[in-house]
Amino acid sequence: MATLLEPPIDIVSAADASAARAAAALASRQCDDGHWVFELEADATIPAEYVLLRHYLGEPRDAVIEAKIGNYLRRIQADHGGWPLFHGGAFDVSATVKAYYALKMIGDDVDAPHMAGARAAIHDAGGAEAVNVFTKIQLALFAAGPWSVVPTLPVELILLPRWFPVHLSKMSYWARTVIVPLLVLAALKPVARNESGVKVDELYIGRQARLVSKAADTKRGWTMFFNGIDKVLKLVEPLWPRGTRQRAIQACIDFVTERLNGEDGLGAIYPAMANSVMMFDCLGYAPDHPHRAIARASVEKLLVVGEDEAYCQPCVSPVWDTALAAHAMMEAGGDDNERRAADALAWLKPLQVLDVKGDWAEEKPGVRPGGWAFQYNNAHYPDLDDTAVVVMAMDRARAKTGADYDEAIARGREWTVGLQSRDGGWGAFDADNSYHYLNNIPFADHGALLDPPTADVSARCISMLAQLGETDTPAMKAALGYLEEEQAADGSWFGRWGVNYIYGTWSALCALNAAGVDPQAPMVRKGAGWLIATQNADSGWGEDCDSYDLAYKGYTPAPSTASQTGWALLGLMAAGEVDHPAVERGVRYLMATQQDDGLWGQEHYTGGGFPRVFYLRYHGYPAYFPLWAVARYRNLKRSNAAHVAFGM
């Protein structure tokens, strides 16, 4: 491994060698059918919930898996005694209560040092009373906490007309799929089998805590209003007509079964999948009932089992990984790399959703489907981000090889344009999902009930349309206006799905470049200037998940990471700064930190799930983003081009 103190004589040749090693390493991780899929790791909550789910269902204990999950949970316990939401993060009481409960369920002695330390930290944070709503529900399902402290979720919600202010179609896709089976659980209030009888009474301190929302846009008046409604609902819930309740439960069952999604699961995300299993269980479905059995099988497919450790992923990311890896391989160039990218695109092509009008059609009924989902299969919930990245990769391959992607590109473009929101931007899964008053509902303390337009997803859609030649249409003008409005005073852009302002600024600068915005335009100069100013002393870039804090005042330095350095370099090169000293220093940083296996290491979480609540470690990010950046630097320097013409 080189060091920053030993600069290569010819940086372009060194970058070429670095890219070749990284491309070979990435190629070795490609599946036989052409796709890539890397591990997707969250915090302690998902593996802990997996353990609790098995005990909830009363399934035979798997001592081997439990031991491996126990090893994983103990390893990621932090020095503060609890479990954080991301590597190196602060104590989180909800994650810690779940991890503690799972370890106790596995059989850890409550007086062992790691358990005693966790318990003390929980007490200091307000006890189990201070956990979030989803954790309160988890405890209530085990009779380890009261239902009375859970905000009311009337199952009759699913019967309300669409014009009603609180309606499932006004919530995000992930909220919808998680909530619907949860409505049944909240109505029936089943109790876990929990054959070992484990509870966590010792985590309570006898003092009720106030729910605190993580949403960025709560209003005191709305909060008081919804809290008042919650009190009324608790009083009248026993009085709901029995027939109406049964009709509502059946509507929930119909919703779930229509979207079961085979072994990829409801919504293809763990919380929805687990809730669907518990819903079928409490309704009396036998373990071998087709619906329950396939829902249960979907959960099992999320496990990552190693020699000594195991954990459960929140979902899988094959389409995202494959599309981004294909871009990186095309950037690396060469016959073998381009063939591998072609194999990846051939794998992606049939995954385009062309025959299912998903939940997005509630808002846009006249639009034909044409998007790609994030996971192997999630036909009801394709997303704009994946669709834009896949279309750009196909267009890039088409331009070079003449491959026949015309119809796939046209349908992807049509669907993307059709889901543009009124403000000119794009959300991830739905159009105009901006009912911000809903974040004041007591149940929505996680602050992620909605899917409004964001700068990063909008930038990707702008990049796609511009790469396809649409730089002067009404849709593009509205989108560029949205992006300009979203730029922060310091020149950065917020990154909703990646951490954070580095991610958003990279995305926006690529979009502005693709759209033909003058590199000297103030918007571009400010964005590039922010990236240059935030470069670390070690020549890399870094930003941690605390940048999502509601009290954020400006960039705070964080350890450099390979993926964030890659984003910053790609953003600066898109802004025409390939010859800036900061870019050369950043490339040298990546070459100096490249591992012996050709890739880069990265424990830090740079993926966004829900700001302030849930973050992701994409194991693929340090595999393809640094390669992409180093290869692009080599390409631009060799061609003497100011910046790349592609949208990413």
What does this structure look like?
The chain has 648 residues and is an all-alpha fold. 48% of the residues lie in helices and 3% in strands. It is built from 22 helices and five strands. It has helices at residues 11-28, 45-57, 63-76, 93-106, 113-124, 133-141, 173-188, 220-236, 242-258, 270-282, 290-300, 318-332, 335-348, 384-401, 406-418, 455-467, 474-486, 501-514, 522-533, 562-574, 581-593, 621-639; strands at 40-41, 303-305, 310-312, 607-610, 614-618. A hairpin with a 3-residue loop joins strand 4 (607-610) and strand 5 (614-618). Residues 1-6 have low confidence and may be disordered.
Strand content: under 5%
Helix content: 40-55%
What does the radius of gyration come to? 25 Å
Structural class, by secondary structure, is mainly alpha
Count of runs of 4 or more consecutive helical residues: 22
Chain oligomer state: single chain
List unreliable stretches of 5+ residues: 1-6
Helix-strand topology string: HEHHHHHHHHHHEEHHHHHHHHHHEEH
- Tell me the major beta sheet: 3 strands, antiparallel
Overall pLDDT metric: 93
End-to-end Cα distance, whole Å, is 29 Å
Strand order of the largest sheet: 1-5-4
Compute the number of strand runs. Answer: 5
- General form: globular
Keywords:
disordered N terminus; 5 strands; mainly alpha; three-stranded antiparallel beta sheet; 48% helix; 648 residues; single chain; two-stranded antiparallel sheet
